[in-house]
Amino acid sequence: MNYNKKSIEDIEVAGKRVLCRCDFNVPTKNGVITSDKRIVAALPTIQYLVNKGAKVILCSHMGKPKGEWKPELSLKIVAARLSELLGKEVIMAADVAGEDAKAKAAALKDGDVMLLENTRYIKGETKNDPELSKALADLADIFVNDAFGTAHRAHSSTAGVADYLPAVSGYLVQKEVSIMGKALANPERPFVAILGGAKVADKLNVINNLLEKVDTLIIGGGMAYTFAAAQGYSVGKSLLDESKIDYCKEMMAKAEAKGVKLLLPVDCVIGNFPNPIDGPVEVETVAVSQIPDDKEGLDIGAETAAIFADAVKNAKTVVWNGPMGVFENPTLAKGTIAMAQALADSDATTIVGGGDSAAACEQLGFADKITHISTGGGASLEFLEGLELPGIACLEDK
Ligand code: ADP
Ligand code: MG
User: What whole-number distance in Å separates Cα of residue 248 and Cα of residue 242?
Assistant: First the structure.
């Protein structure tokens, strides 16, 4: 995939109608936004377009209404918050690309900002229905994608619309693509990747691609136990994807053949999965080869954490996706904290992807010491997998 894409700075936007796909999928509780981080993150692109005198038409999805007009998933609350942040009115359309949106888009003056309703109110959105793509495109002269979090989806508002309009990236997408693209295409070495988390089946596929690129691959978190099984250990009640044991054996052989250092846990913290997740839990640390049948591995052990941190210390590029343990529980967060600390202490370019890994870095107070925390969990993972992201592939090459 070509990562060298045109951005809003490479196209004339003054006086043009610009349809900008944002990620306004904000968390809410009882109709109130609980974090406006994603709205704030979109401001540089929106402000640039406003300053240049574009007629700005914003769109986004929120939640999963699946083609139903669910009022609790209306973007009206986003329009209100965005108005406050921009210090100017954000005109709210009553529909996605229907009569009201058309009329309001046509009436925009240079520098005006409007927001369409939740794109997933329309069934065609997630099916990349050309009818919706065309209707969206008819509102505007230029398409800007600034939603990295949905860039791995081929939906009407993320990719389909680019069939009908010149398409470029906004600042958020540009930053993601340039930092992660460089890390993968031309990394400063040693290049260390760390994988963890719970989505074992998803993430196991990333390993194959990363082994082509990295000098060291570190595996922790829930996915480490399928590797432990591949090493011939019994893993008790730990997370295990039995169908992938042979795959893990293949990956161990591939690492060896390529001269890639594959670091697996040597010890782990075991117990019974806490309920609630942040409730009390009784734990002990054992060698990975000694997990009893009635216990599960819930974090990497201290010896493993030291080995992993040491590998990070000498790296020039580090990519991290997935916590080392059940970090939501303070007793089981130590391995994740140790890795976050190692990244924070390192002079390397450090990139964190994955929703929970990003949350862990933020909660644990390491966010400002990381070079780049990706805004897209699934998207950053597919990026690491070497897959083409439709929301980026559809943009014009430089
Ligand atoms: P990300 O969102 O960063 O991509 P995942 O969603 O794959 O990461 O995984 C995050 C989840 O993995 C967390 O909720 C964490 O509690 C869980 N997890 C990590 N290690 C283990 C483990 N050993 N056993 C069970 N769950 C784990
Ligand atoms: Mg997650």
Answer: 10
Which one of the listed residues 149, 322, 355, 391 is annotated catalytic?
355
By most ligand atoms within 8 Å of CB, the mutation choice from 356, 373, 385 for ligand 1 is: 356
**Cβ-proximal residues to 30 (8 Å cutoff; 6+ apart), any chain:** none
What is the distance in A from the centroid of ligand 2 to the CA of 253? 28
Catalytic residue flag (residue 38): yes
Query: Same CATH topology for 8-171 and 180-384?
Result: yes
- Classified by CATH at the fold level, domain 180-384 comes out as Rossmann fold (3.40.50)
What is the CATH code of the structural domain delimited by 8-171? 3.40.50.1260
pTM of the predicted structure, to 2 decimals: 0.87
Query: What is the CA(325)–ligand 1 centre distance, in A?
Result: 6
CA-nearest residue, atom 24 of ligand 1: 222
Helix axes 37-51, 171-185, angle to 10 degrees: 110
Instruction: Tell me the C-alpha distance between 216 and 200, whole Å.
Output: 19
| Per-domain residue ranges of the chain | 8-171, 180-384
- The 10 Å Cβ neighbour count of residue 280 is 8
Residue 201 pLDDT class (50, 70, 90 cuts): confident
Q: Could you tell me the pLDDT band of residue 215, with boundaries at 50, 70 and 90? A: very high
pLDDT number for residue 378 = 83
Return all residues near 366 (Cβ < 8 A) that are at least 6 apart: 340, 341, 343, 344
- Any residues with CB less than 8 A from the CB of 54 and at least 6 apart, and which? 13, 14, 15, 16, 17, 18, 110, 111, 142
Which element (helix H / strand E) includes 185? helix 171-185
